[in-house]
Amino acid sequence: MKSLTRALSLHPVAWSYALLGILLLGIFHTTTAAQSADPNASTVEDLLRESGEFTTFIDLLELAGMSDMLDGSDRYTYLVPNDQAFAALGKETRKMMRERQNRDTLRQWLELHTIRGVINTEALAKKGEIRSMHGDMLAYDSSSKSGMINGVEIMRADLSASNGMIHEIANLLPPRGVVRLQTIEETVDLMADVPTILNRAISLGAPIYNNGNHAACTAIYEVAALGVLNRVNDLPREVWAKLYHAIEVAKDPAIGPSQKAWTLRRAMDAAIAATSKTG
């Protein structure tokens, strides 16, 4: 039984929605207060490769089919997590970022870190917030030395290139109000009590479902259910079977996200009831 559970995998788009915690209704055009770039400077790609600290970001752009932007004529501003930030991600998240079936969600995540036009931190401070290519509004806070964007520290700002600008950031950008996949991973890793794990996931996922983000809720429930199957010993057979079935439903592309979320929720409720201590 345990060997079968370890062969399970998360829904193909789960890492994206749980890491980002939202579903966008569409991709919107972004307007920026464009700043002039030095035509004699290196391209964005040149700067990233010369640094040697952004290899993962470059690799992901290539996987997503977006690497041409780095040396193209169109100008963009990039909020680039360094390799250390990627190394801090959960192992499952890093793996899924590179899987072929996740290309569309990878592109959406990379667009969250990209702004149309060239904009430096002075312009960001004046505007207060700006829209990413992904459609999210990114909030700038100038209270720290180099500033913060959506609560993430800018480590090096205003690295100018001939076709854009780079701001190095310390972590991957979460949209405001996001529940990160790592939050659930840490819960599962640190707690062996089934009701605690699943109730924690429900407390995080239910408000997201009620706000209309059914796929995000599904992703949170799925990570918790999978974690219980893989990490908790001596589950009652009926509990194991219900959670296993719910995860299989969550992986089925023909089933809608609302039905997936409710299938997982019912299995989780049953697991909580079966494993809760009484008396």
Q: What can be said about the biggest beta sheet?
A: 7 strands, mixed
Structural class: alpha+beta
Supply the number of helical segments.
Answer: 13
Quaternary form? single chain
* Through-space gap between termini: 30 Å
> Helicity level, as a percent range?
40-55%
- How many β strands by DSSP? 7
User: In the CATH scheme, what's the topology name of the largest domain?
Assistant: FAS1 domain
Q: Which secondary structure elements does this structure contain, and how are they paired or packed?
A:
Blueprint: H1 2-6, H2 14-20, H3 44-51, H4 55-63, E1 76-81, H5 83-87, H6 91-97, H7 103-112, E2 114-116, H8 121-127, E3 129-131, E4 137-141, E5 148-149, E6 152-161, E7 164-169, H9 181-190, H10 194-210, H11 214-231, H12 237-250, H13 257-275
Parallel strand pairs: 1-7
Antiparallel strand pairs: 1-2, 3-4, 4-5, 5-6, 6-7
